[in-house]
Amino acid sequence: MTANILVVEDEHPIQELLAFNIAQCGYCAIKAYDTIEAWAHIKQALPDLILLDWMLPGGNGVELTRQLRADQRTRNIPIIMLTARTDERDKILGLESGADDYITKPFSPRELMARIRSVLRRRAPQMSDEAVSAGGLELSPAMHRVSANGAIIDLGPTEFRLLHFFITHPERVYSRSQLLDQVWGDHVFVEERTVDVHIRRLRQALESSATDRLIQTVRGSGYRFSCA
Ligand code: CA
User: Fold this and answer.
1) How far apart are CA 49 and CA 104, in angstroms?
2) How far is the CA of 122 from the centre of ligand 1 (A)?
3) CATH number for the domain whose boundaries are 4-127
4) Of 15, 31, 81, 122, most Cβ neighbours within 10 A?
5) DSSP 211
6) Architecture of the domain made up of 132-225
7) How remote is the CA of residue 89 from the centroid of ligand 1, in Å?
8) What is the pLDDT of residues 40-79, one digit of tens each?
9) What spacing in Å lies between the alpha carbon of 37 and ligand 1's midpoint?
10) Range(s) for CATH 3.40.50.2300 in the chain?
11) Which residues have C-beta under 5 Å from ligand 1, the single-atom ion?
């Protein structure tokens, strides 16, 4: 699953440099030049990470971070703050507002990419290519392969992403709208019942290995992956 990285930066040459490096790493860069454009993108689909410049026209990065952290839907999006400031107080302010990491300009693209990978691994494990396993299920994102108790399971791309998300977020209940945001990345244009359709397909695929019981319906709330 390719991570979508929203780059909020008003300086065009830096925006281009960031987008280039992000694409080189196999991620998808979405460009925004101010906080209004950033919100427009976020309303359509949740990015997997935001690279956020401190000084922006129409509002600064710290304010945007606070707004994102205050909103239930956007509070868990990983944020890396990007700034020319080297002042220690500003650094603390940035992190206190809820940024996950902080990098000062001029930055080395290699270092920035390493930080992006590290934040994604920590905050969005379903974006990683590392193989995961739970309850007899083994899932390899790199090989796009799933097995249940050693037997290969054939899954469609959405069911694959859904199972990957579940295995990396066990024992927690997710509402249909949260699953749309996390797995589809789209909150607006997909109906909530779409989630039920794909859950049903996923359970059908897992039925023969009896691992379908790991996908639990929590009445009135949503779904949970549990090995308990
Ligand atoms: Ca700027």
Assistant:
1) 18
2) 27
3) 3.40.50.2300
4) 81
5) G
6) Orthogonal Bundle (1.10)
7) 18
8) 999 988 899 999 998 888 778 888 999 999 998 898 899 9
9) 14
10) 4-127
11) 10, 53, 55
